Structure prediction request, 940 residues.
Amino acid sequence: MQTSPDRHEYPAHWEADVVLRDGGTARIRPITVDDADRLVSFYEQVSDESKYYRFFAPYPRLSAKDVHRFTHHDFVDRVGLAATVGGEFIATVRYDRIGADGTPASAPADEAEVAFLVQDAHQGRGVASALLEHIGAVARERGIRRFAAEVLPANNKMIKVFTDAGYTQKRSFEDGVVRLEFDLEPTDRSLAVQYAREHRAEARSVQRLLAPGSVAVIGAGRTPGGVGRSVLGNIRDAGFTGRLYAVNKALPEDQKELDGVPAHRSVRDIDGPVDVAVVAVPAEHVPEVVTECGEHGVQGLVVVSAGYAESGLEGRENQRALVRHARTYGMRIIGPNAFGVINTSPRVRLNASLAPETPRPGRIGLFAQSGAIGIALLSRLHRRGGGVTGVTGVSTFVSSGNRADVSGNDVLQYWYEDPDTDVVLMYLESIGNPRKFTRLARRTAAAKPLVVVQGARHGAAPQGHAVRATRLPHETVSALLRQAGVIRVDTITDLVDAGLLLARQPLPAGPRVAILGNSESLGLLTYDACLAEGLRPHPPQDLTTAASAADFHAALSRALADDRCDAVVVTAIPAVGEVSVADAALAEALRSASAAAPAKPVLVVHVELGGLAEALSAAASTAPQAESGTPPQTAPRPSPTEERPPAVEAPEGAHLIPAYPAAERAVRALAQAVTYAQWRRDAADPGRVPEYDDIDQRGAATLIDGLLARGQGLTLGAEETCDLLGHYGIHVHRALPAPTPDVAVEAARTLGYPVALKATAPHLRHRADLGGVRLDLADEDQLRRSYTELTELFGAPDELRPVVQRMAPRGVDVVVRAVIDPAAGAVLSFGLAGAASQLLGDTAHRLIPVTDREAGSLVRSIRTAPLLFGWRGSAPADTRALEELLLRVSRLVDDHPEVVAVTLEPVVVASHGLSVLGASVRLATPPARDDLGPRTLPAY
Prediction:
């Protein structure tokens, strides 16, 4: 690497792996003096036309001077980046800082010329767009605020790269050259462009893994049994529509088939492309397999091999090496230690997993980090989907194992636009990038339900998962996910219950629930469950045990036609006698009544009614019905050569009615659907981040820069805190130190009576319940008497650190906090002050920046919120002023990433206005890269 004294240290943090437009990966890194041969080789593979566009003249080869110039950089005024695949350059970008006259310059000049060159074979993959994002981030880090580029008019591809980036730009034409100038400050449009490119690339990378045209199973054993042989059989038996190969280096040279599948000793021997390789060899042999796959052009790997990070430190290092090795060749990885992937689409029919049977085709996308939980979920969906309502099943399934590369974020990108997926169910044991997951979840939830159950909630992430640590408790992370529209559930059972309802029924318009059935007791249990879940149930309608199918049909029709009803729960107990006949009739009655009012959801609570469950399935099926009393037949597993029949779909407009074995489970699923539906309605108008005329953003920035010049991080003193908050219209009541009674009296005269005397020692601060605060001191005598009481109770003044503060109007004491979490990002928190709220954990959270609607919901979301709205005849607090304070704190932290923590405690919210009585602020130098930086894959 470069070590000359005129060059800065090699900036390793600029290295990054990126996903390109076609789903492949490339590595971006700084160009160094060691890259001379790579640069020459790269240039030789560029067409004459591309060279002409780069240099505006024929330029067949690079001179020694050119090579020296393009490989020697100081990483400040001259920077070059390369995109590499397989260790070789596929594209380069370079900037040179220039002054106002266009000649080379150094700081404080803030403009640079930028130029790209992309190998012809890799043009159209989005390489230049990715390089522009990264060179732009590097330039901003080095104090460059504007790029200039000169492009020939015929070079439309490069002009499009610049114009599509979303930056504010200016274009001119002079001397036959198009000159583009654009600011590097991120804009709403540039971020939107960046996120859209990220979405397309990551979705495409997952699509290549889930819908391949050809698959090779590497490690398929010669004898039956074993992981590789099992996966090979599962792919074959599912009727995979593409080409399938078995690979095992131990096969005899003359063996050409394995279980009827073409067999080879190496993936290199396969005549034709291989899109996905399932790797099922011992961990020590995986590096050799990755090399062979990379050289053969394999696009992605599903690594079911174990023995990686889940096995200890050595395994973790091997896992990192595996990811780096695969990315070198542009391949993405599911796993290692993965259970596999499934795609039930009739166009693909892929079961590259350890599941012996492919689940029923359906509309549910399923993601599980744990193989064991994945098995449980597939089993429950198969049982409930087949036994309860027939055709509801899985569109795609991904078990990521240690999720070293492909994660839940990537799969969310794919499911967002997947036309075969209507509902997403996820089991997560860790969230590697909560900030990104929240952003993607919010977008996905606005289009289709996203249900999440999180394991390892109260402990560390599984050993195999390499994730950034978060300081936020699980409850806070859960609250942020709910804010993003995620339906958070606690168990696998709840996950399936909610998923089946959301996949089969419309969203409820509100919380009003009608209850009807043939059991008064079951109806009352349902009623109580509705109240416990915050729903608004109507009194149960008891149809009595003598109710016929026609009675159920009439009652359900009336309930669905009632404008005061948003959803209906039907309760049913077994009939005596011809059970199967009664079940079929009841199922048809419920289905036909529900179909007449398709806008309202219907759920069934049944007690030991297996026949009703199957009947409900049959009532919504186009399959021929069996004769009365004939047990349903189980579909045989297709043979390897048998064409798998298409999924049985319900008739147009037919409803698949979910049935639950317990009232509590049905009502809980319904309550989650009600909450989600309300979130969808609110998300349609998320509000806005208001502007305030009295905010001095530039003045605050100047103050912060001056304070940080003292060191890397610091907690501000009282005067500095008040000064900084004042720039954002947040005014803190002065608190004057009172080390002696005489000084306390002088402070009170300065502030004006009445005053408060407070002990600010750490063990007494904000603990009025311990007696460290004296309020409403009207004169000098009361102040001196209180001072004496405090010192007698708690010790000398130097231990108490007493202060005097002017009394604020009476009101409700609250606490406002903002913190920058390394994983989740900026979070705003709110709650009432006092030990009770702390003990109950009654604090609400929102991601920054907060809109006006979110500020209002934040205030109202805590359980003790009634105290702010006139509880038991008290005067209502000025919640408008409180919401404005929350918005101002949000703006401060959002505008200045150097502000890593703000605490306002206590804030007294009176009937008119509020008073901030205590405040603290912590500053720190922001990281070089944040969520607004260029898109990258997690570093290994």
Remarks:
- Residues 188-210 form the longest helix (23 residues).
